Amino acid sequence: YMNSSKRGAAYGFRLQSLDVLLEMKSTDRKQTLLHYLVKVIAEKYPQLTGFHSDLHFLDKAGSVSLDSVLGDVRSLQRGLELTQREFVRQDDCTVLKEFLKANSPTMDKLLADSKTAQEAYESVVEYFGENPKTTSPSMFFSLFSRFIKAYKKAEQEVEQWKKEAVAQEAGADAPSKEEAPAPKARRQQMDLISELKRKQQKEPLIYESDRDGAIEDIIT
């Protein structure tokens, strides 16, 4: 649908195209391309209408700076390494020993979690055809968040248009409760026609006479 064979196959679209759906409008400027897609999905692919229920915590994810989080983890790691080297020189220090014993496992888990988060983010960004090195989480997740809000609003507007169309159609089909009074000239014309019809329904005058002057009597 997006390309003809002359220009080559279209395997997808950039995520920025989701924002452009709101900019493409019909000739009367009343509906956008997103409104049209909402109608097509509702009529042809109703199983896709609840797609946004599969996406969770978009707003929260968009507010996280992954680079800052990973930077904080590396800083903690360097601090723990310094503490370990200090303990090597002072292996009889009970405070350092207890600190390393309590926090080393936590640091190891934090490192593993940060690596998992980074790999998961890079994987999902590449899945949608974007570059994880140039696409930040705030940019990536905000695209989906904006699209879902616009999609829900378009759904509401399409539903409202349907209700208005049904109400307008019902109002056009309903007969008027009271007829508008006819103009005075129209009433006079109808009265005249009724009078003529009434006179035509009277029995004709029949004269059966052989005498002269019968025609004069009829005329009279």
Report the sheet with the most strands, covering strand number, pairing sense and barrel closure: none
What's the helix count?
Answer: 8
From the structure provided, what is the oligomeric state, counting identical versus distinct chains? single chain
Computed over alpha carbons, the radius of gyration is: 43 Å
Beta-strand residue percentage:
under 5%
Unreliable stretches: none
Shape: rod-shaped
N- to C-terminal distance: 90 Å
| Integer average pLDDT | 84
Given the helix and strand composition, which structural class is it? mainly alpha
What is the number of strand segments? 0
Description:
By secondary structure, the chain is mainly alpha-helical. The chain is built from eight helices and no strands. Among the domains are: 17-55 and 140-171, no CATH class; 66-128. The chain has helices spanning 17-20, 33-44, 58-62, 66-89, 94-127, 137-173, 184-200, 214-219. It is rod-shaped, with a radius of gyration of 43 Å. Belongs to the formin homology family.
Short account of what is shown:
The protein is mainly alpha-helical and 220 residues long.
Note the topology.
Layout lengths: L16 H4 L12 H12 L13 H5 L3 H24 L4 H34 L9 H37 L10 H17 L13 H6 L1
Helix pairs in contact: 2-6, 4-5
Pfam family, one: FH2
GO cellular component, one term: cytosol
Protein name: Formin-like protein 1
